[in-house]
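Category: protein sequence paired with discrete backbone structure
Discipline: computational structural biology
Format: plain text, a pair of labelled lines
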Amino acid sequence: MRGLHPLLALAVAGACANADGSGQADGGTGGDGGGSGGDATSCGDACDEDGDGVPDSADQCPATPDGAVVNQVGCSDGQVSPTLEPDFPPFGLTWTPTGDLGRAGGLTWTYTGIDRADRFHIYWVICDDPATPCGVSLDGPIDVAGEGWQYSTLSAPGAGRVIFDSAPSLRLADGSSVALDGRLVVTLVGADDLPIPFDTVGGLGVPARSATHGAELPGTGFTVSAIIEVRDASGLWAPYLDYYDAAATAEGGTTAVSFGASFYSE
């Protein structure tokens, strides 16, 4: 007999995978213990053909492998696929932002109180909105071709740190432009302050929209630290807003920045 996934009574967040890899995130009411298979004429509403503890009438994943832990709609880990959480904040979490991406000390996002319910996995992926260019510009709107973020080989994914590079420029008051190097440095730690490793979205198995990297989140809380810096020919890195404020920029100049993330779960 299969046991139900822990915290069965809470909301389901998985989706039973179809043959084509798609899923449906409908809820359901699970059973409270092991049912047993049997003839429909003899077991009625209590029929449980795959013996996973969820009656066939509520089971969205028939033929669950023997011995697998299931969620409240009868799906095991291997029968669900990651789906995008469309609303923010998801999982009943509390999100606390402090600091600024372009200033000394950077930005900190603290997430607490994640209700995992009977979810098998939760993922956080960077820059996943295809409608919003993700990068930094010091001369107006973001030009993705040069100012969009590109994954850097200097990243240390296993240490919970990824770096994204860009090549912004700055227009000065005399009409000239300064070519800059840009970088976004992101670190991720759990509620225990231990690094959360990053991976490619392919490695995570997440069908991301435009993200290239992310992480699987353990536990019920985590912290993101991020800063955007630029440097010119001097070779010295500086928070991008501090650099911009100190430069002799053209009148009416503006900066633009985009950085965000999406949640997926199964």
Q: What stands out?
A: Residues 1-80 form one domain. The two ends are 23 Å apart (CA to CA). The chain has four helices and 18 strands.
